[in-house]
Structure to design on (611 residues):
């Protein structure tokens, strides 16, 4: 321990979206997803990298940490690690990860310092324990959670099941730091080391992931299913529905025999089955919304709560969330930005602080900027790298917000990198690509030329919080880009690049108190255009994680067709030679990054995890 300061470490271990979160006296010091450090999307395996990052942010070692709380939905982490000692075929443990793990003091550790908790319990703590509410109800809905025999929280008698059933949905009530289980929905027994095909199980999130696999070839492209849904019709019969308190899921229709086989975007777009995929996306989205609304109404009846918090991968469905806010009796809804499995690390850390150490709640999550703020020397090193000097001009701005707004108003697409990175899958103004929302062609330009993704996918409007009601219908507090709202009809022609085909938008309300620099940029853009809204999307190329370091930002800028990069007070613009050099630069920088990442990971494991 360091004096009277108390540190708690939370970890989401081994399967997708490995992450870590460190608390100091109950407040987050840092939280990070492993993918941001290894540059491998949804990275799995050992958790050395994000743990080392968090310890570095605090300037401490493992010896200073009071308690470590972990979770993996597969099995309890201690059980997983015992199996890994003799199991050679696990795809979760690459050789480099295995070497790190076997040398780490965390691998194989147990109580009293290292504790494992169950999946939905961690999700629940990630939702209510950092919310602004003293009491309320909790909805946890995801693809698959822990086995019944591994669940820690008491389960009501009417929610009991076989010991090897898996969590699918969990509903709770909370008062202060006390959590009470109201209901659980389970999926049939399938216990094993891993279950690569959980999406064949009869659960809400599992079925949505099955549709994702069918339409796009991967279970974890649910956001794309949501974006595709407005293009389809509701001609096909429902796939699931609530019957009382029971979720009924239909057998997969025999006529659904045209899965996407993963050749290319062009093959997907030109497929004769595209209309079928659009209709299926619309169907599963509609069914999901209806089930969640029904569940929320029933939860309100059973708890009488005025406030609702949500977590689990399904809570990233901003369209469904918007309807829950608008069509249920709850007065307030809170969803923290890492609602998926990366947020498990946050829930584990908060559980450790509250339940293991017996502290009271205090910290409220008002912003997602939980990454390290890099020193100016590191930024200068990145912008002066040889590739940057050769293909881009650079200048030190005296007012980066005004300069960025000028570029946006002139129709340029820029990357905006400031402060600490966002925790969760959304870029919310610190690791963003920004553009002018006023032109309809801007959406297609950013999708095709910058992000290299399907043309149907929408972009988010980032709007000054106090001006949101002028442009959007209904609720006007959406700081984490997790609620879809209707764009007012008279405003749709003003911001067409961020208005989806169904007239909605995934809104981010920007508050001066939580991100003053991004707020000032939007104000500067409004002074030039009269519009207090910018197009906001994550700063990454397709298939890559959001950038983390200054070096990541410069590499991503040089390997894409962005017009400019504004990083802290530096402004980089492409030279004419860049267009010719870009393909070679892209290959060279990926090679260098791979070498550098391997070296960093080895050093982190040795210096920090070995003590």
């Amino acid at each position: 321990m360091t004096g009277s300061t108390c540190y708690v470490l939370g970890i989401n271990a081994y399967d997708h979206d490995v992450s870590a979160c460190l608390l100091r006296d109950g407040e987050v010091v840092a939280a990070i997803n492993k993918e941001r450090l290894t540059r491998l999307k949804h990275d799995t395996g050992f958790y050395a990298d994000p743990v080392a990052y968090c310890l570095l942010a605090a300037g401490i070692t493992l010896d200073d940490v009071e308690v470590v709380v972990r979770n993996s939905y597969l099995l309890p982490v201690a059980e997983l690690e015992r199996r890994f000692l003799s199991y050679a075929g696990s795809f979760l443990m690459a050789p480099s990860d295995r070497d790190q793990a076997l040398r780490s003091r965390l691998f194989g550790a147990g109580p009293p310092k290292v504790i494992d908790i169950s999946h939905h319990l961690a999700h629940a703590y990630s939702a209510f324990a950092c919310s602004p509410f003293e009491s309320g109800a909790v909805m946890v809905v995801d693809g698959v959670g822990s086995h019944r025999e591994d669940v820690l929280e008491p389960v009501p008698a009417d929610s009991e099941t076989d010991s090897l059933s898996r969590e699918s949905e969990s509903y709770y009530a909370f008062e202060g730091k006390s959590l009470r289980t109201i209901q659980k929905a389970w999926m049939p027994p399938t216990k094993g080391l891993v279950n690569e095909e959980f999406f064949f199980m009869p659960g809400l999130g599992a079925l949505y992931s099955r549709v994702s696999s069918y339409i796009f070839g991967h279970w974890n492209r649910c956001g794309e299913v949501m974006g595709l849904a407005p293009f389809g019709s509701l001609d096909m019969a429902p796939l699931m529905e609530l019957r009382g308190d029971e979720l009924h899921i239909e057998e997969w229709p025999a006529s659904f025999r045209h899965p996407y086989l993963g050749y290319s975007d062009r093959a997907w777009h030109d497929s004769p089955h595209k209309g079928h995929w659009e209709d299926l996306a619309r169907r599963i989205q509609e069914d999901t919304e209806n089930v969640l609304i029904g569940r929320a109404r029933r939860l309100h009846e059973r708890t009488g709560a005025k406030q609702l918090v949500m977590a689990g991968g399904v809570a990233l469905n901003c369209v469904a969330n918007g309807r829950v806010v608008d069509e249920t009796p709850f007065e307030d809804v809170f969803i923290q930005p890492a609602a998926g499995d990366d947020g498990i690390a946050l829930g584990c850390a908060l559980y450790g602080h509250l339940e293991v150490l017996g502290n009271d709640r205090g910290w409220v999550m008002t912003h997602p900027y939980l990454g390290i703020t890099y020193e100016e020397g590191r930024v200068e090193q990145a912008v002066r790298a040889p590739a940057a000097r050769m293909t881009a001009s650079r200048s030190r701005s005296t007012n980066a917000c005004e300069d960025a707004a000028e570029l946006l108003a002139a129709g340029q697409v820029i990357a905006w990198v400031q402060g600490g990175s966002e925790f969760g899958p959304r870029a919310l103004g610190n690791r963003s690509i920004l553009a002018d929302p006023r032109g309809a062609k801007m959406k297609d330009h950013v999708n095709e030329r910058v992000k290299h993704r399907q043309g149907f996918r929408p972009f988010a409007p980032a709007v000054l919080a106090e001006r949101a009601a002028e442009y959007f219908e209904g609720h006007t507090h959406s700081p984490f880009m997790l609620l879809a709202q209707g764009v007012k009809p008279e405003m749709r022609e003003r911001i067409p690049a961020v208005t989806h085909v169904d007239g909605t938008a995934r809104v981010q309300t920007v508050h001066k108190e939580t991100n003053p620099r991004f707020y000032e940029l939007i104000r500067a853009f409004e002074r030039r255009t009269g519009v207090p809204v910018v197009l906001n999307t994550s700063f990454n190329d397709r298939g890559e994680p959001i950038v983390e370091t200054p070096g990541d930002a410069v590499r991503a800028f040089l390997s894409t067709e962005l017009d400019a990069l504004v990083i802290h007070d530096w402004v980089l613009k492409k030279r004419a030679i860049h267009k010719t050099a870009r393909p070679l630069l892209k290959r060279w920088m990926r090679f260098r990054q791979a070498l550098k990442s391997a070296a960093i990971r080895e050093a982190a494991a040795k210096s920090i995890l070995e003590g």
In short: The two ends are 14 Å apart (CA to CA). The CA atoms of residues 90 and 446 lie 39 Å apart. DSSP finds 19 helices and 21 strands in the chain. Residues 578-609 form the longest helix (32 residues).
